[in-house]
Write a structure and sequence with these properties.
By secondary structure, the protein is of the alpha+beta class. The chain has a single domain, classed as 2-Layer Sandwich (60s Ribosomal Protein L30, Chain: A), CATH 3.30.1330.40. A hairpin with a 2-residue loop joins strand 17 and strand 18. The longest helix has 23 residues. The protein starts with a strand and ends with a strand. Bound molecules: 3-(2-carboxyethyl)benzoic acid.
Length: 342
């Protein structure tokens, strides 16, 4: 097999290469000058004093033994800068942007998130990268508040208001991560491109944008994954994936069983991506490029080690302590995969 044909996108050769690749940013606490042509350093840990828009520091504690983040190395020249509070970096094919809202700006969570989303959507479009491929949201005290007053649910309402203005908006939602931090505020990181990605949903899970009313007044506006057709092999950017089957939480209280469900959810997603978008290919042809594992309680690490070894040893895994958007969820995994051309 020499061609990679992508349903609704045509032969891969017709698409540009993805002009960046991921390397380790080194162990926690390490810090070095950014190499030439770096799109960004996406790192977990405290922010440094230097305000380089390419340095993204998410205030989550890295677990011992794992590297603290990634360097996104560009194969094209990079431009970067600040536009007010928005930091950005771009290479004519992709744009990475970051925006932090301090806790004081979140007094009206719904309104603040609504405005931040309008701002980011407007920003990437104005710079010529109108397609949102993936968004990371790191929100302080994500599970605080009861019922519909929970901060995550308020966040979802604001996000929904910002994206639901077009009739077909659900088919264009980006892949996402939403994780709670122990500090305050909201950090947004966006990966946007010039060409649209293809949405992939998970047959084992109700689409998040269709979650029923009990999970909040407005459903979470994200896709399970974005498939990017690329001349050098399609990329699959997979959203934070939790132990949710249908729309229900599976194995509340058991982090190891939750991690096994996550592995099953990821397998189902890969099979579905192949079935719907990559005719003639097999799910096991996807190669994992990287994982990020978010664990709510550091003391659960020994309980999940075996399942991590069984299911997630095929690519570098960053591991951090973070809260998941439903209080019963103890662990979540996001992933990037590549489907080689031949
Ligand atoms: C879930 O599947 C788990 O609201 O942007 C995962 C990834 C989750 C992204 C988001 C939420 C989000 O519902 C939670």
């Amino acid at each position: 097999m020499t061609v990679l044909k992508i349903e609704a996108a045509g032969p891969a050769e017709a698409w540009p290469r993805l002009p960046y690749h991921i390397e380790s940013a080194g162990p926690p606490g390490s810090r070095r000058p950014l190499p030439e042509q770096t799109l960004c350093e996406f790192r977990f840990g405290p922010a440094g004093a230097e305000r380089d828009p390419r340095r993204i520091a998410i205030d989550l504690e890295a677990l011992p033994g794992a590297d603290a983040g990634d360097l996104w190395r560009s194969e094209l020249p990079v431009r970067h800068g600040w536009d007010g509070a928005i930091g950005y970096s771009e290479n004519d094919e992709v744009l990475v942007m970051q925006l932090r809202l301090e806790e004081a700006e979140l007094a009206d969570m719904e309104e603040a998130v609504y405005r931040a989303y309008l701002r980011l959507v407007g920003f990437v479009a104005a710079r010529g990268y109108p397609e949102l491929w993936r968004i990371w949201h790191y929100l302080g005290a994500i599970n605080e508040g009861e019922g519909d007053a929970e901060r995550y649910r308020q966040f979802c309402i604001g996000r929904y208001r910002a994206v639901a203005d077009r009739p077909d908006f659900e088919a264009q939602l980006p892949a996402a991560t939403a994780i709670g931090t122990r500090g305050g505020g909201l950090d947004l990181v966006v990966l946007a491109g010039k060409r649209p990605g293809l949405q992939v949903e998970n047959p084992r899970q109700v689409s998040a944008f269709r979650y029923p009313r009990p999970y909040g007044l407005r459903s979470p506006s994200f896709s399970r994954a974005t498939l990017l057709p690329c001349a050098d092999g399609a990329r699959l950017l997979v959203s934070g994936t939790a132990s949710i089957v249908g729309h229900a939480t599976a194995f509340a209280g058991d982090p190891a069983a939750q991690l096994r469900q996550i592995a099953a959810n990821l397998q189902a997603l890969l099979a579905h991506a192949v079935h719907t978008r990559l005719p003639g290919r097999e799910a096991d042809e996807f190669a994992a490029e990287s994982y990020i594992v978010y664990l709510r309680h550091a003391e659960d690490l020994p309980r999940v080690r075996q399942a991590l070894q069984e299911h997630f040893a095929d690519a570098p895994a960053r591991m951090v302590i973070g809260d998941i958007c439903r209080s019963e969820l103890l662990i979540e995994v996001e992933a990037a995969y590549r489907m080689p051309v031949a």
